[in-house]
Amino acid sequence: MAEFRFKTPLTEADVRQLKIGDSVLLDGVIFGVRDGNLIRVFDKNVAPPCDWKGAALLHTAPNVRKIGPGKYEPICVGTTTSMRMDRFTEGLLRDYGVRAILGKGGLSQNSAALMKQYGAVYLSVTGGAAAMETLQIEEIEKVYWEDLMPECIWQIRFKGLGPMTVGIDAHGGNLQADVQQQAKDKAAEILKKMGITS
Amino acid sequence: MEVSDSFYALVETVCRDLYIKSLKEIPPDVVESIKRAAAKETKEVAKRIFSHYLRSIELGKKENMMVCQDTGIPIYWVKIGGKLRLDGSKLEQAIIRGTERATREHPLRSSIVSPLKRENRQTSTGDHIPIIHYEFIADSDVLDILFMPKGSGSENMSFMKMLVPADGINGIKKFVLENVVGAGAKPCPPMVVGVGIGGSSDLCMTLAKKATSRPVGSQNPDPQIAALEAELCDAINQTGLGPQGLGGDTTALGVHIESAWTHITCNPVAVNIQCWRAERRRAIITPDGKVEEGF
After folding, report:
1. CB A62: neighbour CB atoms within 10 A?
2. Are the beta carbons of A179 and B59 separated by less than 8 Å?
3. A49: exposed, middle or buried (C-beta count within 10 Å: 0-12, 13-18, 19+)?
4. Closest Cα to residue B66, out of A144, A63, A173, A196?
5. How far apart are CA A92 and CA A95, in angstroms?
6. Sites in chain B below the pLDDT cut of 70
7. What phi, psi does A23 have (nearest 5°)?
């Protein structure tokens, strides 16, 4: 389990080095996305108003304080459950060149196959530990689609976001899916031992 | 004794404060439980995750920060003393206003939208939100409000099934274990697993939710149910999901079961999960306006 630190935007070479279980810190601009804005991009066919080539996208919707027109300061920025956004992985990698999706709880085996194909990774942020994550923000630089508040697209500059755990690497590895499969096998074994299933 | 109008104003500010404080100070029983799990953890990744949890708990308490970004669905469990004379509709309005004020004055992210149009009033309120449960307590003259900001990562991991009597207790055990493992990393483990058994379908799920509001590791007073809680907790912890579903020794901080009697043909079971923070905060208000805060 190696430790890495990268600056965004990321290259294919950056992410291909990573293996599941590795630890990663990120510096630079990261875009906050989630249900509302990705539904607008992919289901309503509105192109995102920012360049996501090599981007790291964080599944989030922060608590903020408005300090001027289009300008916000963070109160609490954390990470939301990624699986709800699983069906958007292909479009993000293929159409927009995203290199890292940051979230919690993991993505599917289908997303893992796409990440292998296109050269991208899933980085698992520690869910619920948003206080720590908030202190890693330097600035909320820009906000797009404020009408979706709080589900806008957030352009946030971080210093040392993480450490995150590589959940899916660009070689087909999917740590959370592996752990869950082992847990399912174990549960089946326990139910047999309890005499509940044969 | 009939309460005065200032009582409702007090309920409003108390509810505002409960919402804000619940997001910043994790209940002491939960903190102790996380510390115990961290101390005995053997996996490296899991140890790192636990250190993030403990750091965020500390930032919440010492730096007055929200621990998690999710402001949740606001839920109130209100116990009204039988000797307390108050106007229920005024009480309800005070709770709603307190919820809105927390959102506006802190400010907090409003996580509440209409179900189809996805319209957000930016108040954390809407039709039937906040959710308020009422109970009446004989011989008491106080108002006891327990607040939970229920995060969606865990709330989305809710499961209900109308088992039949022939499925028995084994059916309940199988349903709970399979669904907790099926939830995997999504509810931010280690989790508090709330289980409802009996009742009607709606009551069963309410019981599961109520079970998550108990202090972590507390036992059901019925010994048979308490034994079931311990058995299921042990089984879940053998699965190795661990914190954030990245593998580890603790997957459940506790399994809490609440029960009701049911129909002769029914054997309902519901699972409602709380994330590792299991946030809750309580205030007890006396008719003359004294407030005692707790968890």
Report:
1. 24
2. no
3. exposed
4. A63
5. 6
6. 1
7. -110, 135
Residues 148-207 of B with CB under 8 A from A: 151-153, 156, 170, 173-174, 177-178, 181-182, 184-186, 188
Cα(B270)–Cα(B197) distance, rounded to whole angstroms? 7
Give pTM, 2 decimals: 0.95
For the four alpha carbons of B170, B172, B178 and B180, in that order, the dihedral sign comes to negative
User: What sign does the dihedral B48-B53-B56-B61 (CA atoms) show?
Assistant: negative
Q: Specify whether the CB–CB gap between A91 and A118 falls below 8 A.
A: no
User: Do residues A160 and A136 lie in contact, with contact meaning Cβ atoms separated by under 8 Å?
Assistant: yes
Judge whether B245 and B185 are in contact, CB under 8 Å: yes
Interface of A with B in 172-191 (CB under 8 A): 175-176, 179-180, 182-184, 186-187, 190-191
Other residues' Cβ atoms within 10 Å of the Cβ of residue B70: 31
**H-helix or E-strand spanning residue B98:** helix B88-105
pLDDT, position A61:
85
What confidence tier does A198 reach under pLDDT thresholds 50, 70, 90? confident
The answer to whether the CB atoms of A60 and B69 lie below 8 A apart is yes
Contact A61, A150 (CB under 8 A): yes
C-alpha distance from A133 to closest chain B C-alpha (Å): 9
Question: What domains does chain A contain, in order, with CATH numbers?
Answer: 3-173 (3.20.130.10)
Tokens for A149, please give them.
Answer: 């508040």
Give me the sign of the Cα torsion angle B174, B178, B179, B180.
positive
State CA B176 to chain mean position distance: 18
Q: What is the pLDDT of residues B21-35, one digit of tens each?
A: 999 999 999 999 999
Q: Dump pLDDT digits (tens) for B191-232.
A: 999 999 999 999 999 999 999 999 998 999 999 999 999 999
Over residues A135-155, the mean pLDDT reads 97
Tokens of B278: 């299991």
Domains of chain B: 5-23+68-150+279-294 (3.30.1330), 153-274 (no CATH)
CA distance B122 to B114: 11
